Structures are given as C-alpha cells and as structure tokens.
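Input.
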Amino acid sequence: MLHVVLPGDVADPTAPSGGNAYGLRVCRELATVHGWRVRRHDLAGSWPRPEPAAAERLADVLEALPDGALVLLDGLVACGVPQIIEVAADRLRLAVLVHLPLADETGLPSELAAALDADERRTLRAAHTVVVTSQAAAHSLARHGVAADRVQVAEPGVDEAAPARGTDGASRLVCVGSVTPRKGQDRLVDALAELTDRPWTLTCVGPLGRAPGFVADLRAQIARLGLTERVELVGPQAGAALDAHYDRADLAVLVSWTETYGMVVTEALARGVPVLVTAAGALPDTLGHAPGGSRPGLLVAPGDHGELVAALRSWFDDPSLRYRLRMSAHERRAILPRWEYTALRLHEVLDRLRRQPMRTPR
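Output.
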C-alpha cells in the first residue's frame, strides 16, 4: 500500500497547477501501470502555513498508519510542518515530493521566506527520500544539506497532442499559469506595451485567486496602458477549453522568475507551439533542443525588460525566425518526456524505499 498525501484542492478544476496535475497523474499511473495499491489523502488547509485544525488532521492521518507504512507527501503539505514530519519519520517510510522550494516563491516577506526555508530544511532532513522534478530543483535544495543519495529526480511527462493550427502564425500569444508575481505576467504586459504597433493579442490562462492583490494591480496596469482590448485574463481552463487556447496559439510565453520545471512549456511543445521563456531555474532544460540541436523557442534573462522586448519584436518582425522555431518545436514533439517514464522513476524510487530497513535519516 502506498499512501499519498496531497493538498485538498488537488482535484479542483478551478485551481489547476503543475503540482496538482503531477500528483493526480502519478497516482493513476502507479496504480494502473505498476500495480500499486494507492490510497490518496487530500487534506484541505492553507498549506504551507496551515490552520491548527489542518495540521492536526495531517498528524492524525500519519499517526493512524501502521508502522513501516510507505507515504509520499506533497511538499506543499509537508514542508511547512516539520514538527509533524519528524515524529512520523521515526516509524514511517516517508518520501517528500518537492515541486518548488517554499522560500523560492516570489514576493514573500523576508522573515516569512526565512522561516519557511528553515522549516523545509528540517522536513527534508527528516524524510527518508526527497523527490524533485528536475536537476535544477535538486541543486536548489542542496542548501538544505540533504544527502545527495536521498534526492531523486522524476521529471514530469506530457501527453501526446495534435499539432496546433495557430492563428496567423505570429500574433496570438498565450501565457498559461497561475496569475501570480512569480509568473511575471506584469512584466510581459509591460514589454508588449512597447509593441502596440504590431498586431498581437495575449490570453493569460490560469487561476486568478492565488494572489488577488497582484491580479487587481495587473488589471489596473492593463487598463492604464490601454491594452484592455488586447490582453485577456480568462481564469483557469481545462480539457477541451485549454486545448482550444493552445490550438489557437502562435507563441506560448512564460516569463517566470523561477521554475523547477514548467509543465506548460512541454504542453505547448507537444502541440508544436514555440515557447518564449526566461532562462530561470529549470526552464532552459525544459525547453530543451530538437534532435538537430536547435532551440524550439526563445530564451531571455529573467527581469531583463529590454531583452524581453527585443525577443518579442524579433518574433513579430522576422518570418524566417518564426518558421525556424516552429520547425524546431515540431521536431521537439517527438522526444518530449512521457508520463510513463515519470511513473517508472517514481516506482523505482518508492520500491527501493519500501524494501529498505527502517532508519531515522536525521
């Protein structure tokens, strides 16, 4: 039996995220492909800083498990409550899945970031195994002093998809992701404001409730710059609705300050849509290269306004560049990682942990 502890909104269609998608998919793949008996525990709470009742519920769930039970915990739930994880690690086999180190979220007050970083360090030192989604994430966690042999990488996969038809090959931009300071939609709008003489529209697809103050400021920014007819915030989308946005896209854009993978990049590439991304965290590796070595998109330095404007200008003005990037994106489709590999990696990691004698890792 594998017990998987996930945030309470993991299956909420109004709150999509890469972490939620990853958690749900690997639970399914481990059960259907690798024969694991998987029991999910979806725990509501304001993680990683839960209310006392939510923290108590997590402690109760772990306390009710038999000695030696195997548990995979989402880092958003586990990493802010080390006092619970340290107690559980003395008798359970714990693996913690880290999607984004807690202190790396953009815009946190410095005191809160430091406190979250300290809590996460305690949690990951207590866990028997730490799973991350990229080598960049593994390097980021080196600051916590977790032994390298306890950190395992299981990159997200992507499903096959039909090639996008696009709009006119240039003008329709899509930015998929939660509208939050880390995703940098405000910087993208600022850059596009300098290119109003080019024909373009931008659709931002993703939850609007995770940083309501930022969303309000972004809407005000869009209005102030006179872009209300060209920039649309459509909220979270899934299934056919999300597919339709990708299908109409000529270019996908993700200008995050940091990412430990960036699943929306491979979602776009799976449809042959080139991607403009910041060279932040794992994004250059996620963008990757086509078999011939070409990049299926454009890289810009995070926070470099001039470079972002120049990259967008080149995209709009250079038909030969657009053609090369589209060809590279279509070639990259064939070699993107699949969920089958993700599940196999996790199966290997968890099976090894299941067979190990109990030990206290601290």
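The first strand starts at residue 2 and ends at 7.
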